[in-house]
Amino acid sequence: MPPEVHSLRFYEHVEETEACDALLCSGSLQYVDWSIEELIGRLPRKPYMIFLNKVPVSASEGFFTLETFVKTLPCRIFGPDELEAARQHLGYKLAASLAHH
Fold first, then answer.
1. What is the rounded distance in angstroms from the CA atom of residue 84 to the CA atom of residue 48?
2. Which distant-in-sequence residues (6+ apart) come within 8 Å of 75 by Cβ?
3. Are 49 and 92 in contact (CB under 8 A)?
């Protein structure tokens, strides 16, 4: 696709993705077996920005639990320090947060 063409694409599997400027992890990050760093490392190129909305966060340390929708799935609850460490390790700056302190 020529660089002057802008598009929005959705992928179900990280292996299908193309290089992108922005990555939206909308309500899916907690179900991925990899760390945030591993997920970004599997992309063809590190995106310019990452939107992490709908990420379950505990005020204390992160943990795993089970969620039941149609079937039971392991769900990762992130700790704020864990997300901050991943952000810094990947070299991203925090642009906005709705976290309540």
1. 17
2. 30, 31, 56, 64, 65, 66, 67
3. yes
Please tell me the distance from the alpha carbon of residue 11 to that of residue 34, in angstroms, as a whole number: 17
Which tokens hold the place of 80?
């704020």
E strand or H helix that includes residue 86 = helix 80-90
Strands 63-68 and 72-77: antiparallel
Please enumerate, as own/partner, the contacts of 94-98 that have beta carbons within 8 Å and a separation of 24 or more: 95/49
User: 73 with 31: CB under 8 angstroms?
Assistant: yes
Q: What are the pLDDT digits (tens) for 64-100?
A: 888 887 888 888 888 888 889 999 999 999 888 776 5
| Global confidence as pTM | 0.71
Select the more confidently predicted residue: 38 or 55: 38
